[in-house]
Amino acid sequence: RLVAPEYGGDGSKTTAPGKYAAPVFTFVSATGRGAPTDMLFSPAPGWPAAWRDGILFVRHGGQGVDRPGGYAGYDILFLPMGADGTPGKPVVFADGFAGPTDDDRTQRRAAYRPVGMAQGPDGAIYVVDSSKGRLWRISYMGN
Questions:
Q1: What is the CA radius of gyration of the chain?
Q2: pLDDT digits 0-9 by tens, 54-76
Q3: Tens-digit pLDDT profile for residues 95-126
Q4: How many CB atoms lie within 10 A of CB 11?
Q5: How many other CB atoms sit within 10 Å of the CB of residue 129?
Q6: Residue 98: DSSP 8-state
Q7: Which of 55, 62, 86, 118 maximizes the CB count within 10 A of its CB?
Q8: DSSP 46
């Protein structure tokens, strides 16, 4: 964790060990952070067990100059959580917002950039895009 300049940081100075609690989970990856912008705790009980007991994260997509393969994000991840609060391995819950190829995963080329979500009283998850104002409804219809 870097110390902010207003607290004496210089862009590389880190905080003293033990000063702050360790994060439960971080979004750093080789292809960009994916800009998590919203989260929803455990979808409604009507969803399959695989999608309960965890957190859904909307990722708005990475940014920067276009590069082959694009950036991480432009998706919704599910982070399963153990009964003791220990995070499991994140899995993709919904994807394809940016477009059909990995090269679409750039700020300039992405068709859509999911930015927020909410759960309706019927258990459906509503996802909104910041690029074109699209709203998606994701629901579980059974087997």
A1: 17
A2: 999 999 987 778 888 888 889 99
A3: 999 999 988 888 888 999 999 999 999 889 99
A4: 8
A5: 20
A6: S
A7: 62
A8: T
pLDDT of residue 105: 87
Q: Which amino acid is at 117?
A: M
Reference 90, options 47, 134, 121, 59; nearest CA is: 59
Give me 15's structure tokens: 């905080």
**Residue 101 DSSP one-character state:** S
Query: What does residue 108 show for φ and ψ, rounded to 5 degrees?
Result: -80, -35
130 CB neighbour count, 10 Å cutoff = 14
Kindly give, in sequence order, each residue whose CB lies less than 8 Å from that of residue 42, ignoring residues fewer than 6 positions away: 52, 53, 54, 55
126: β partners: 118, 137
What residue has token string 């979500």?
117
